[in-house]
Amino acid sequence: xxxxxxxxxxxxxxxxxxxxxxxxxxxxxxxxxxxxxxxxxxxxxxxxxxxxxxxxxxxxxxxxxxxxxxxxxxxxxxxxxxxxxxxxxxxxxxxxxxxxxxxxxxxxxxxxxxxxxxxxxxxxxxxxxxxxxxxxxxxxxxxxxxxxxxxxxxxxxxxxxxxxxxxxxxxxxxxxxxxxxxxxxxxxxxxxxxxxxxxxxxxxxxxxxxxxxxxxxxxxxxxxxxxxxxxxxxxxxxxxxxxxxxxxxxxxxxxxxxxxxxxxxxxxxxxxxxxxxxxxxxxxxxxxxxxxxxxxxxxxxxxxxxxxxxxxxxxxxxxxxxxxxxxxxxxxxxxxxxxxxxxxxxxxxxxxxxxxxxxxxxxxxxxxxxxxxxxxxxxxxxxxxxxxxxxxxxxxxxxxxxxxxxxxxxxxxxxxxxxxxxxxxxxxxxxxxxxxxxxxxxxxxxxxxxxxxxxxxxxxxxxxxxxxxxxxxxxxxxxxxxxxxxxxxxxxx
Length: 493
What we know:
By secondary structure, the protein is α/β, with parallel strands linked by helices. Strand 18 (413-415) and strand 19 (420-423) form a beta hairpin. Helix 2 packs across helix 4 (95-106). The protein folds into 2 domains: 8-220, 3-Layer(aba) Sandwich (Rossmann fold), CATH 3.40.50; 229-487, UDP-N-acetylmuramoyl-L-alanine:D-glutamate ligase. The longest helix has 19 residues, at 30-48. It is built from 17 helices and 19 strands. Its EC number is 4.2.1.136, 5.1.99.6. AMP binds at residues 408-412, 436. (6S)-NADPHX binds at residues 63-67, 130-136, 141, 159, 261, 325, 371, 437. Its cofactor is Mg(2+); K(+). K(+) binds at residues 64, 126, 162.
């Protein structure tokens, strides 16, 4: 088994077609792949739960169920007590799954097909549905998932937790809550975003001996970005660098009473390495800014100052961060319109996204950072519709508004018009006020240093989640956005 996860992610149809082609090219029988999958799952079972003696294996009618029969046979050979329950008539099995079933029976295995046993088990193996599931789970399948989730037993899911959409990470009514999921041949993109975080547990990968050939011949436009890639993405700074070469960033926002958002944004930009950072905000926040972060410069503008004065303030900068605490007032709209008219690279968040949904623009040199609620407003959809297919949502936002889109949430997706990157970092402690303001500052700072919206969005989003994971090492509950600030500038090894 691979010690770390591959970077390439695929749709289920790509894996289904690709594994057959690659196996054929390599002269590997499909039943041999099923045997390898079952063995990999059984070895993980023994490694992770070495004390487990009594195991329930739940099998469906497809090849995922066939993997379960292989696990059952190997468990019997190892002397474990195995209860195998089939959710469908085992006599209807065909192909490799039927062969695996016959081998299980030959090992004196017994198949139950009445009610799912409710007795206690040391471990449950989920082999009900594979990656081909495309409709809501119903009937006794859904009942079985509910019983398994309520059992209190640890669960190992084979290839994907049953009920989870392999392409989107959404749930078909109900899904298994696995403690661990082992995925084969190639990683499925739905394992790493949306509701998948609630169901997959720890994800383990085994390429079954064909992964390298698969990845070499089956192209993908979706990648998994883990913290191991941070050092490669980090902007390079020469030893002779001075602040003028590290970017001038103007953070625009903070209407009266919302100063905290723009201060966090500016602080995050400083900590991430921007050379000069100024805040264009309401004058009532001046004392708070000077007291909390004297390195931040302050700019002011009122409507009576006129458009030329505002343009002069904005064009001091190389890059803009627009939106934290901006509000929806006449003042806010004037700043919004002036920022967009400047044609400077800009990171757009929070209230500026709400304004954008009312006054649409399409621009190549910006990064949009919506959470699902803001994404719903941008596309005139519901949050549920956004979360049902986050990959489609992030692409549609790009199609309408351009630039690079960062769709926040569990498994944040960054889309640049060609490639999707899924952030494999972050934790539930980030569900607190101010985290988005910090992210805006981080990405804008990276943009000021690189002048690349694509690089800044990927690196900034990954760095933000990485810092949150470090900050949460002593606990996720009560994690504050400001807790990330001292960690953003740490050397990345």
